Amino acid sequence: MSKKRGLSLEEKREKMLQIFYDSQDFYLLKELEKLGPRKGVISQSVKDVVQSLVDDDLVSKDKIGTSVYFWSLPSCAGNQLRNVSKKLESELESSKKRHVELVEQCESLKKGREDSDAREEALSELKDIEQKYNELKEEMGQYADNDPATVEAMKEAIKVSQEACNRWTDNIFTLRQWCSNNFPQAKEQLEHLYNEVGITEDFDYIELPAVTLVKQVDE
């Protein structure tokens, strides 16, 4: 035996609307939750169904004191449907006019673009120009290192790096001096430790020679 099919949302909406139309009365939500099952709408879904009707202006809702009442009259629903119908008809008319305008615009744009030898030649020339442009753009990218702004940025980055390295070098010298002053008896052990971490006798500040960044470019 097949299981009974539940009501769809639209069917539930119709059932709840029928409750309002038959009685033409005002209801609290808890009252509607009791009446809903009599029409086949389970009480747990009554709230959502009624709210969907309120959202579509098919059911009115108002707070009186501390209570919220719901109601709907057939005449109100009819007026609402007529208003919706007029709105849709107006939108349809506007859409038709817009469609006509777009068709006319499309036909206008086609003028002068008919297939012809001259048009095909112009399109081919345009394609060649675009390809040449992309090739030149790619070639320019290869010479970016010669851009004055790029060179200056590289020089500034080198200067900042040099200053940072020398600050750390200064800190290391200061630390070595402090260790020598406070642990003179551990001189040999300290020297061995310095050598292990790369602080040898030739360890000193970094002095960069003046270099001009030049890259040969074939003309």
TrEMBL record:
Subcellular location, principal: nucleus
GO molecular function, one term: double-stranded DNA binding
One record GO biological process: reciprocal meiotic recombination
Keyword DNA repair (UniProt): no
Residues in the signal sequence: none
Location(s) in or outside the cell: Nucleus
Keywords: Coiled coil, DNA recombination, Meiosis, Nucleus
Domain Leucine zipper with capping helix: 150-206
Bilayer-spanning residue ranges: none
Ranges for domain Mnd1 HTH: 16-74
One GO term describing the cellular component: nucleus
InterPro entries: LZ3wCH, Mnd1, Mnd1_HTH
Regions annotated as coiled coil: 78-146
Presence of the UniProt keyword Coiled coil in the record: yes
Purpose of the protein: Required for proper homologous chromosome pairing and efficient cross-over and intragenic recombination during meiosis.
Family statement drawn from the similarity comment of this UniProt entry: Belongs to the MND1 family.
Protein name (record): Meiotic nuclear division protein 1 homolog
Organism: Helianthus annuus
